[in-house]
Amino acid sequence: MTQFIAFLRAINVGGHTVKMGTLRQLFEGFGFSNVETFIASGNVIFEADSGETADHLEQTIENGLHQALGYEVATFLRTVAEVTAVAQYQPFPTAELEAGASLYVAFLKDELDEQAKLRLATLKNEIDDFHTHQREVYWLRRLQLGESKFTGALLEKTLKMPATLRNSTTVRKIAAKYPLTGT
Q1: 20 to 30 Å CA-CA from 121: which of 27, 29, 64, 88?
Q2: Domain locations in the chain as residue ranges
Q3: Which region holds residue 80: left if phi is over 0, alpha if psi is between -120 and 50, else beta?
Q4: Quick one: how far is CA 169 from the chain centroid?
């Protein structure tokens, strides 16, 4: 069995509310075991057969949630090792974060091509900075959220692909709660 973390995009939006218990039951119904939600219902930890590919599991979850809930929920899977690597990655100087900036991680399905990276670079300004690494975009916000014009919707439009954002603190907490155990 392999442990995965599913980062769900827009599970509770547009007047929809899915309780964590209901979400756990849905994931169990998809055939997964040891299902937990963490911090919010958009973060689901579960185990699946080691032979299953992440792409296949994402499709299973997305199709199952669409059928059960009646709306699309983009799903971004990472293994515990991948989440640990994301949590440990330092895309910006520590001094920036110590100066009060906030760091967010956008999870993507695929790595960005060069054209998408160029489009992302056009969003950089004195408040918002971006860095890409593997299947993640790191967003450094130097001032208060209300002072930034950047949104997840703008990110998706710019990249021309779905994404879901998490605060880096949440990512670090998930990595700490589910340490590598050799799976």
Answers
A1: 88
A2: 2-82, 84-177
A3: alpha
A4: 12
Structure tokens of 9? Answer: 């995009």
- Label each residue of the chain as H, E or C: CEEEEEEECCCCCCCCCCCHHHHHHHHHHCCCEEEEEECEEEEEEEEECCCCCHHHHHHHHHHHHHHHHCCCCCEEEEEHHHHHHHHHCCCCCHHHHHCCCEEEEEEECCCCCHHHHHHHHCCCCCCEEEEEECCEEEEEECCCHHHCCCCHHHHHHHHCCCEEEEEHHHHHHHHHHCCCCCC
- Say whether domain 84-177 belongs to CATH 3.30.70: yes
* C-beta separation of 7 from 164 below 8 A: yes
pLDDT above 70 (res 120): yes
> What is this structure's pTM?
0.93
Give pLDDT tens digits for 39-78: 877 999 999 988 889 999 999 999 999 999 999 999 999 9
Structure tokens that stand for 170 in this block: 């949440």
Instruction: Answer for the pair 87, 134: CB distance below 8 angstroms, yes or no.
Output: no
Strand partners, 164: 107
C-alpha–C-alpha distance, residues 162 and 9, integer Å: 9
Residue 183 pLDDT = 43
Residue 175 has pLDDT above 60, yes or no: yes
